[in-house]
Design a protein that fits this description.
Elements (H helix, E strand, L loop, with lengths): L1 H14 L4 H6 L9 E2 H8 L3 H9 L7 E2 L5 E3 L2 H14 L4 H12 L5 H39 L8 H11 L7 H12 L6 H9 L5 E6 L2 E6 L4 H13 L14 E5 L2 E7 L3 H24 L1
Antiparallel strand pairs: 1-3, 2-3, 4-5, 5-7, 6-7
Helix pairs in contact: 1-7, 7-8, 9-12, 10-11
Length: 294
C-alpha cells in the first residue's frame, strides 16, 4: 500500500502544475484571447452553470466582463478548470480544492497541507477498497453455501469450482499473470487470439495514464512511437465487433493525443480494459526488473 500512497501524493502534486501558468500570467491578459463562458465550458466539457457555480465557490473568476456584462475568461481559466475536474475525480472536496488553488496561486502551498489532504483521501480509498474486498469475500462464502447445499443433487462443473477458488482467494495475493489471463478471457473477443495477444505484448511496459470522465475511461499511453499507436489502433479495430461492448456507442475509440495515444472505452464492462492496461504496464516493469536480475 505505500506505493498507492506515493502515487496518490504524486498525483496531488501534479494537480498544481496546471496552475503555474495562471500564477505567472494572470496579470498579462491579451484581450483577443479572452473567451466567453459558453466557449470555455465547451472546451472542458461542462455546462456554463457549472462555471458559475465554481465562481460562487471562489474557485474561478472571469478576467473581466464585456460592455454588455458577459463574463470573459483568460486562457489560463481552462487550466484552472481542468485542475478542478481532476481534483474532483480524485475525490478532493471543493473546500480542499479551494485551499490548493489559493495557496498555489499565491505561492504559499505547504507540503504539510498537501500531505494532510492526500492522506485523508488515501484513507477514503482504503475504506472503499476494503468494502469491495469484503463483498468479494462474502460472495465466495455465498457461492460455497449454495454449492454445499446442493452438492448431492447437482453435478457441479469443474469450471465452477475453479471460478469459486478464484473468488475465495485473497485478491491481493493472486499472481498478476493469473488475474490477467482471467480478465482477458472475460473479454471473449479477439484479444484472446494470437493476433490479439501479440498486440497486447507490444503495449506492455508503457507508461500509462488512466482517468474517468463521465461514463468513460480514458487510457493514455505515453509514447510517440508510431508502432505503439498502430498497435493501439489495431486493438480498437479488433474490439469493434466484440459482444462485450453492448451498443455501438460503447465500442473502444482510438484517438491521437499530444502526449501519446488514447483509447476511450465506455460502458459497464469498460473496467475490464482498465484492469488489463494497468496490468500490462506493471507486467512490463516486472519483466524489465527480472531481466536486470538475470
Amino acid at each position: 500500500m505505500p506505493v498507492i500512497k506515493e502515487q496518490l501524493l504524486a498525483n496531488t502534486l501534479s494537480l498544481t502544475q496546471g496552475c503555474k501558468a495562471y500564477q505567472d500570467n494572470r496579470y498579462n491578459i491579451n484581450m483577443k484571447e479572452l473567451v466567453t463562458i459558453g466557449k470555455l465550458a465547451r472546451r472542458v466539457g461542462l455546462r456554463p452553470s457549472a462555471l458559475r457555480y465554481y465562481e460562487s465557490e471562489g474557485l474561478l473568476e472571469p478576467a473581466q466582463r464585456s460592455p454588455a456584462g458577459y463574463r470573459l475568461y483568460a486562457p489560463q481559466a481552462e487550466q484552472t478548470l481542468r485542475f478542478i475536474q481532476r481534483a474532483q475525480r480524485l475525490g478532493f472536496s471543493l473546500a480542499d480544492i479551494h485551499v490548493l488553488l489559493h495557496e498555489w496561486q499565491t505561492g504559499k502551498l505547504k507540503s504539510e497541507t498537501l500531505q494532510q489532504m492526500a492522506q485523508e483521501r488515501y484513507f477514503d480509498l482504503e475504506r472503499q477498497m476494503t468494502q469491495n474486498l469484503v463483498l468479494q469475500h462474502e460472495l465466495g462464502l455465498f457461492l460455497q453455501d449454495l454449492r454445499d447445499n446442493q452438492q448431492k443433487m447437482i453435478d457441479w462443473d469443474e469450471s465452477f469450482d475453479q471460478f469459486l477458488e478464484k473468488v475465495c482467494a485473497n485478491p491481493l495475493n493472486q499472481p498478476d499473470d493469473d488475474t490477467f489471463e482471467w480478465l482477458l478471457q472475460q473479454t471473449g473477443c479477439e484479444l484472446t487470439t494470437p493476433q490479439g495477444r501479440e498486440i497486447l505484448q507490444a503495449l506492455a511496459g508503457l507508461h500509462t495514464h488512466i482517468w474517468q470522465q463521465d461514463d468513460s475511461y480514458h487510457i493514455l499511453l505515453i509514447s510517440q512511437d508510431e508502432a505503439v499507436g498502430k498497435a493501439l489502433q489495431m486493438l480498437a479495430a479488433l474490439e469493434a465487433h466484440c459482444s462485450l461492448h453492448t451498443g455501438r456507442q460503447n465500442v473502444p475509440l482510438f484517438l491521437n493525443n499530444d502526449e501519446g495515444f488514447l483509447l476511450k472505452v465506455t460502458g459497464e464492462n469498460a473496467f475490464v480494459f482498465v484492469r488489463l492496461f494497468l496490468m500490462l504496464e506493471k507486467m512490463g516493469t516486472n519483466n524489465g526488473a527480472n531481466k536486470q536480475k538475470a
